[in-house]
Amino acid sequence: MVKKISSRERLSAALACQKTDYVPCSFMIFFGLRDRCKDYFEFVDRQLEMGLDARVDISDLLVKFHPDVHVREWKETIPNEPHPLLCKEYHTPAGVLRTEVWQTEDWPYGDHVPFMDDYLAVRTRKYLVTRPEDLPALRYLLAEPGLSVIEEYRQRAEVAKQFARSRDILLCGGGCNFERVDVPEVGHECACVGIDALMWFCGAEAPLIWAFEQPEFLGELINIVALWNRRRMEITLDAGVDLLIKRAWYEGTEFWSPALYRRFIAPILVEDANLVHQAGAKFGYIITSGMMDLVDDLLKIKPDAIIGIDPVQGKGTELNAVQQKINSRLCLWGGTNGCLTMETGTKEQVKAEVEKAIDILGRNNGFILSPVDNVREMNPQIEENVRTFIETWKSLRSKP
């Protein structure tokens, strides 16, 4: 029998693949509840009231360009095209970077084009970085955080840290709690980032072509992003976080072959993991699909947790195969699906999925239950599914 422990201790033990009093449950993302709360701290308290192992995510450092960067934006109407074209230029001492994005009906930013956001990935006509000559200008956009940015972050981090400690829950950095939506320049998608940034700057196809035709160019681009991100990681770790989360939705084998992953991505991830561990924190890696062919690499790199084990929409995430391959050597976070099961499924489907996740992934140490990635809304059906999810988890979480 394991004595009852705090939520922070429970999640920390799971991240270390150690025995806990019961299987913890911490939602990766929970917009449906978040949007009903007056602020982020109420959102955390509401999760605690549900019995969840809530955590506090410090919203990321602001992104500020070099002071010599000047931005110009405008909208054009293109004959015979169904959508207006939003144009944006970044004028830097090293040249001009230009991007063009179709303003589709679901575009959430009005006439503005953010610097980083998933909405850019499939709506961009002209990407920001298309050739080696663009890299010097990109360095001006990925500028070193200034003293004002660092101080502003430290103040927010201290408030978040005190709140987390008052409730004895986990303090996380690198992710984004989406509290800072009042900063329009960046969009919602920054946080601790690697290859995902290439999706916003270059699109999905070009970097894969460059890997074969211009590997030196691709390597330099990846290194520019990595060094910029690592400096931000250092500041986050200095705040005393328990867990640093890096997003890697676009680093799986649905985009990159294992050989390209080992050449371009794994070396960056090794340095990131070492930095986090040297600071005494845990390192979480969000990869929700295309992970199985990379497991041997991840076991060598040793992030503490693979976040986003999705048995429905993920590719190569069959639970038995994942459990047998990992076998308590890395923490697995997820186990159920958010979009299809939690948002559109029946109570019976939700119950069955939770039961299966706990039965398979919970049989060893190192498992945190969560829908993957997000529960985005809260209508009566979804509310009932969330209740079923939590009730089923509570009835099974202490199962030997």
Can you put this structure into words, describing what you see?
- The chain has helices at residues 7-15, 31-34, 40-49, 135-141, 147-167, 196-201, 205-213, 215-238, 258-278, 295-301, 319-326, 338-344, 347-361, 380-396; strands at 55-57, 70-76, 85-92, 95-102, 124-126, 170-173, 243-247, 282-286, 305-309, 331-337, 367-372.
- Mean pLDDT is 93; it is low at 178-182.
- Helix 8 (215-238) packs parallel to helix 9 and helix 13 runs parallel beside helix 14 (380-396).
- A hairpin with an 8-residue loop joins strand 2 (70-76) and strand 3 (85-92).
- The strands form two sheets. The chain has a seven-stranded parallel sheet. Strands 2-3-4-5 form a four-stranded antiparallel sheet.
- With 400 residues, it is of the alpha/beta class.
- The chain folds into two domains: 7-62 and 163-396, TIM Barrel, CATH 3.20.20; 70-141, no CATH class.
Task: Name the features.
single chain; 400 residues; seven-stranded parallel sheet; four-stranded antiparallel sheet; 14 helices; 11 strands
